[in-house]
Design goal:
The chain is an alpha/beta fold. The protein is about 40% helix and about 20% strand. The strands form 7 sheets. Strands 1, 2, 3, 4, 5, 8, 9, 10 and 11 form a 9-stranded parallel sheet that branches. A 6-stranded parallel sheet has the order 13-20-19-16-18-17.
């Protein structure tokens, strides 16, 4: 039975749980999670909760749904080697033997004992039962002396379709073994109580539920676009990128304005379901039309020979990323991340925008990346990246969104579930054949019903239905997600809220919207707040005009976007010319009128400016110049 406890209020101003310490350096959060079975709803990702589990004084087994997440934590171990990974994964078709793991663990035990440090053991959901046997049988350890932390515990629900198969119910067996122990800590940033309360282990055992209460979290802005395919979604992303530039003419994905300060998004992190979708996109943009350089693409997916072969078939310059750039390292413009690889991928791109391309296919909701949106949001780790608070979601429409259609779909699956179990029960002497046929059916279409084979018998697996409900709620009903707020984030004042309401009137033209913003800008004492609202509510293009042009020029244009675009283009061309002049002409060196004219003309030609250069043009472009006459010839010097 899940017992609701009081919320845990995190002190104002903290970004990470690990910053909450008493005068002696002890973690304050430890007071709430000392013993027993507990669920902790973090409410936001990236708050350092997992780090606390690995840095505190308790012997800990951290159970993770993803290998890449474990690799990420192992890379962050300080000092190196302070965590032990019970690695049962296959590497190039080879798997470590139990004897190898035992030798590694003995060395780890000696190291931790020598340093007086607690044990920190990392393992996947799939390998937990093997680890438990390993510790209990080979080392006679009592696992009740460990705190067992189930990281990203929403995966107990959403990963059912990913992990369950026709032969073995992985997650039910994991839960059955897990609840043999007393000190369990389930952590997630996604509310899962309403779903897991129907799981037998959570019904039969007392489990406390805590929710963290933050004062500095920020609601995510969701921008949604209806599409027919992943390629069409990428076409829209690429077209938008091509049409928008910063003042230097560099292409950008998004713009954020705060007063006179402009920030631009130069990177796109695109989350989607499969390597196949990535290859379809890149086959067009790299192989066929050569619009993207392979060196400017990163692909994060499951590391295996098959995936490497797929991406290199598109272009030999592509590869599967074995590690993610850390803070300050080079990032590519295009980063593609698949569903099975994103968890544990901490992205330190300082200007990246987030895109999610989803199938929104109700029959397989649990294996669509859309159900991972709450976790995807938290992958952007740079707090002062203003674009981390926006997620762009591309989805296909589906009639099963409708409540009645969804209920009918589930009823059909329930009926098929009962039919399959009844068919097997009445098969008599051919039950074995019936079971084999059922397993083949499940393997062919795992979404057809809620049957799985347990101990040689078909059984109704409620986790499958619960997973479906969870995923649908994420997509249809749960549209409010949070991240830790950066220092510059604010809430809207009443005046700005009023402006937003006016902008949202459906009949307003673009010119009307710009006129409305002008009225507020002309009288506002806090234009920075208006700029922020325009960015967050998807009016970045309007903010762009007010950033690039004085108010009087916006009025002079009659709020006409074509005229403003032309004026901004001319300004950008002028700025580009000035920049090239300063890159070309050496300060202090004298240039004849003929030289100046020739240099300016080459700059015009390189920038595609159809104009005839004259030496006197320099006087309009560079005010800090000096002109001297020597023997009747004019010479120009940049100061």
């Amino acid at each position: 039975m899940i017992i609701q406890k009081n919320s845990i209020k995190i002190p104002t101003g903290l970004t990470y749980i690990t910053q909450w310490q008493d005068s002696n350096g002890n973690y304050e959060i430890s007071r709430y999670f000392a013993n027993g079975r507990v669920i902790a709803n973090k409410r936001t990702t990236g708050c350092g909760f997992t780090s606390w589990c690995l840095w505190n004084e308790y012997n800990t087994i951290l159970v993770s749904p993803r290998v890449r997440l474990i690799h990420n934590k192992m890379e962050q171990a300080d000092p190196p080697g302070s965590y032990y990974y019970f690695d049962r994964e296959k590497d190039n078709q080879k798997q470590k033997s139990i004897e190898q793991l035992e030798n590694e663990f003995v060395a780890y035990l000696q190291q931790q004992e020598y340093s007086g440090s607690p044990l920190k053991i990392l393992v996947t959901y799939d390998s937990f039962r093997t680890l438990a046997d390993f510790l209990e049988q080979r080392f006679q350890m009592d696992l009740c002396l460990f705190r067992i932390v189930i990281d990203e515990s929403h995966s107990l629900v959403k990963d059912v379709k990913l992990k369950e198969n026709s032969v073995q119910p992985v997650l039910p067996l994991f839960l059955e073994r897990l609840f043999q122990y007393t000190n369990l800590l389930f952590i997630s940033a996604t509310p899962i109580v309403d779903y897991i309360k129907g799981i037998p282990e959570f019904i039969e055992n007392e489990v406390w539920y805590y929710e963290l209460e933050w004062s500095n979290i920020e609601e995510i802005t969701s921008r949604k676009y209806c599409i027919r395919s992943s390629l069409q979604a990428f076409n829209q992303i690429y077209d938008h990128w091509m049409k928008h530039t910063d003042p230097n003419g560099i292409h950008v994905f998004d713009e954020y304005y705060q007063g006179n300060t402009a920030s631009f998004s130069y990177e796109a992190v695109i989350f989607l379901n499969s390597v196949k979708d990535i290859c379809t996109i890149l086959a067009k943009y790299i192989k066929k039309e050569r619009l993207i350089n392979p060196a400017d693409v990163s692909i994060v997916c499951r590391e295996c020979t098959e995936n490497t072969a797929k991406v290199q078939k598109v272009d030999h310059g592509l590869s599967v990323a074995t590690s993610i750039p850390k803070r300050g390292q080079h990032h590519t413009t295009w980063t593609f991340v698949t569903r099975t690889a994103f968890e544990g991928v901490d992205l330190y791109n300082p200007t990246a925008s987030t895109y999610v391309i989803t199938n929104y296919n109700v029959s397989s909701l649990c294996i669509d990346i859309a159900s991972d949106i709450p976790q995807i949001i938290g992958r952007q780790r740079v707090l002062d990246n203003p674009f981390r608070c926006v997620v762009n979601i591309f989805f296909t429409t589906n009639s099963n969104y409708d409540d009645a259609a969804y209920a009918a779909m589930q009823a059909a699956k329930e009926q098929d579930t009962q039919n399959q179990i009844t068919l097997w029960s009445g098969a008599g002497s051919v039950q074995e054949t019936a079971l084999s046929n059922l397993q083949a059916l499940i393997a062919h279409d795992p979404n057809k019903n809620y049957v799985r084979v347990v101990n040689g018998k078909p059984q109704y697996t409620e986790l499958l239905r619960i997973a479906e409900d969870y995923s649908r709620d994420i997509l249809v009903n749960h549209s409010v997600w949070y991240v830790i707020r950066s220092a510059q984030s604010t809430h809207y004042s009443q005046a700005v809220k009023q402006l937003l309401m006016q902008l949202q009137q459906p009949k307003n033209t673009m010119a009307t919207k710009i006129s409305l913003v002008y009225q507020y800008m002309a009288t506002s004492q806090n234009p920075e707040e208006i700029f922020e609202m325009l960015f967050r509510e998807e009016y970045s293009r309007i903010a762009y005009y007010f950033h690039e042009l004085p108010l009087e020029r916006i009025v002079a244009s009659g709020f006409n976007t074509t005229k403003m675009d032309q004026e901004i283009y001319q300004i950008q061309q002028m700025n580009a010319v000035i920049r090239k002049i300063r890159e070309t002409l050496i300060p202090g060196q004298a240039y004849s009128s003929h030289d100046v004219k020739s240099i300016l003309q080459s700059i015009y030609d390189a920038l595609g400016i159809k104009a005839k250069a004259t030496a006197t043009s320099l006087t309009n472009l560079c005010p800090d110049y000096q002109k001297k006459m020597v023997n009747g010839t004019a010479y120009y010097t940049i100061l």
